[in-house]
Write a structure and sequence with these properties.
Layout: H1 3-8, H2 50-63, E1 67-71, H3 74-82, E2 90-94, H4 99-107, E3 115-119, H5 124-130, E4 135-141, H6 153-163, E5 166-170, H7 175-178, E6 188-192, E7 206-210, H8 213-226, H9 232-242, H10 245-264, E8 269-273, H11 283-289, E9 296-301, H12 307-313, E10 318-319, E11 329-331, H13 343-349, E12 355-359, H14 365-376
Parallel strand pairs: 2-3, 2-4, 4-5, 5-6, 10-11
Antiparallel strand pairs: 1-7, 6-7, 8-9, 9-12, 11-12
Helix pairs in contact: 2-9, 12-14
Length: 381
Amino acid sequence: MRIDTRLVRAGLGTDPRTGAVSTPIHPSATFAHPGLGQSTGFDYSRTANPTRRVLEQALAEVEGGARAFAFPSGMAALTTLCLLFRPGDHLVASDDLYGGTYRLFERVFREYGLEVTYTDTTAPESVGAALRPNTRALLVENPTNPLLKVADLEALGRLARDRGLVFVVDSTFLTPYLQRPLELGADIVVHSATKFLGGHNDLLAGVLVAREPEWAERIEFLHNTTGAVLDPFSSWLLVRSLKTLAVRVERQCRTAEAVARFLLGHPEVTRVYYPGLPDHPGREILERQARGFGAVVSFRLRSADQVSGFLESLRLATFAESLGGAETLVTVPSRQTHCDMPPEVRERLGVTDDLVRLSVGLENPEDLIADLDRALQGESG
């Protein structure tokens, strides 16, 4: 069964008693026991909830993993991931990555003895040079946020296996519909499900999917013990959203490529970052290991002084953090998503004040391009 069919059928047939087509919501904190030493399979919602279980089973199936776990945010998922390691362990991570992940590593877990080295994960030789005897894991965003660098996951998977590392891929930007990291050598996949998986800017959620039962058991223990679990209503919303993931992402990818090509020729834009453009260094890799290029486009204006006027002139695209929803969102990473990175780190990476990140939504592409063109020219519209 193809993945788009599996997505549409998420949760179907999970309530045989009533035959409900839509997965029921079970907003119950606890569940009655039939008798002493007996259980319905559900005891307490922190441990397991019927609605969340339907979601997690669907996510595991579409990713091709042994188990999936749903969290109340992407950061909660990453925090639980970090708890798999011990003080003195060392991780290697993508240098160009979400500022919240950097903040979690540097301002929380470094205090607990977890060390992280950031390197260019598009170059396996750079990853190899960053490894130490105490390196335990490799974490890669693919593509990266916000400069959309693309790593060869198969090559990194081989490297991780050879060195006995846990290979973790944050696949938020591409979703399991476009990219399936577990099939390319990853051990654990991370998603901020708030983004494309949710798709409507109306929920917060995070996901970890483990390829092997061994890692699933460790995550399950932490998931239950720390209590960072997704509530039943958000779980139901996410099941609902998975059903339209394929059609949403396909439309968003087509529009994103049209927008990127438009920006590429605009006189007020000096550079465009989008893996679907012919000159993007990661295009060939994504053609091989994914089925699309995603719906996030980053670009640079001629001057950082233009950014404020550009944002004020937009009428369709909304100036807001986050990405992956039905509505097109515009973000200035240096001032929003990556503001907690030290200025010198942002400068070195290229996350400067002239950089704009665009999450392309479901609007008509001609309307969206017209709105961007008007704003780039400084017209109020």
